[in-house]
Amino acid sequence: MPPVSAHRSTRTTLRRTVAVAAALPVLALTATACGYGSDSSDDKEKVAAEGKKVGGLDEIKVGYFPNVTHATALAGLQEGIFQKELGGTKIKTQTFNAGPSAIEALNAKSVDVTWIGPSPAINGYTKSKGQNLRIIAGSGSGGVSLVVNPKKVKSLDDLKGKRIATPQLGNTQDVALLNYLSENGLEVDANTGKGDVTVIRQDNKEIPASLESGSLDGAWVPEPTASKLVAGGGKVLLDEKKLWKDGKFVITNLIVSQKFLKENPKAVEALLRGTVKTNAWIAEKPEDAKAAVNARLKKDSGQALPAEVLDPAFKNVETLNDPLASTLRDEADHAVKAGLLEDPLLDGIYDLRPLNKVLKAEGEPAVDDAGLGAK
């Protein structure tokens, strides 16, 4: 199932979207005043907000997921790299468990920017008719696997009749699994999850116990859940990297509210400088970065990952500035094939001009929007 297909016209038009995932009730890790995610802004940070405020802005509200696939966010926040770039403009953070809740928070102005997977970004942009967000940078590639109970599933040919979990209906891993099954002749109703394979939508943190109890036969999940399953006796049946050209596909992007981007370009540019510097630091000092990621995970969840989970999870994720825009096209195609979207709107979803300005200043090559950039 090579997902790098011939590209459709960049001038896709919005007609009607099924947008199942975006219509779901908001899911959150912890209840907060806004109801969208867990607010950790009151915790003491390594670097304090001090000095001149960027563009006179008091604070910037930043969202991310406590997943290793969000390593840029985790490491950059933990080490204070973003805060250093923002000076006296304070970072207020929220964590999310699912893409739809992050989009709801962005739409409600509870966050200004957030790291998020590609499918919710496409879904949210389509539902708003291209009015709510822009993708302004890449962040992560890879870090997703199909892990199974090796006693029940010996090969990919054994998937028929099995119960396979994904984190949420319509999320990035859900779309990937549905597409993979379809490409291999296994039919599943996208809405109910019923068919030749039963697709169970379950929270990442609940999946390991379900696999251990036998209520699941496998799961298509991001890191560190995939490595948790392996540590518990599961087997990686398929690394999603093997389905993509050169083993690269977008798993995490950085998105911003269009209103915030227009009104606070200097703050956005400062955050992007932090992103680029964080990714460079991760590449230069991976062991230090891995420790920072784990420290942030402990701060957010109260528990650090053991080495047998953290080491493979961190290794499986590639952090990068490039949003891998051509693979976003393909992920949109997969959502259409799965019946979760009809004619997704992609034109103008990217604005990489601020990022390319930062990259140029850092002596790094520009990244491409695959013809999907804002004019």
UniProtKB/TrEMBL annotation:
Residues 1-33 form the signal peptide. Keywords: Cell inner membrane, Cell membrane, Membrane, Signal, Transport. It is found in: Cell inner membrane; Periplasm. GO terms for molecular function: ATPase-coupled transmembrane transporter activity. Pfam families: NMT1_2 (PF13379). Gene3D superfamilies: Periplasmic binding protein-like II (3.40.190.10). Its main location: membrane. InterPro entries: ABC_SsuA_sub-bd, NrtA/CpmA_ABC-bd_dom. SUPFAM superfamilies: Periplasmic binding protein-like II. GO terms for cellular component: periplasmic space; plasma membrane. Belongs to the bacterial solute-binding protein SsuA/TauA family. This is Aliphatic sulfonate ABC transporter substrate-binding protein. The lineage of its organism: Bacteria, Bacillati, Actinomycetota, Actinomycetes, Kitasatosporales.
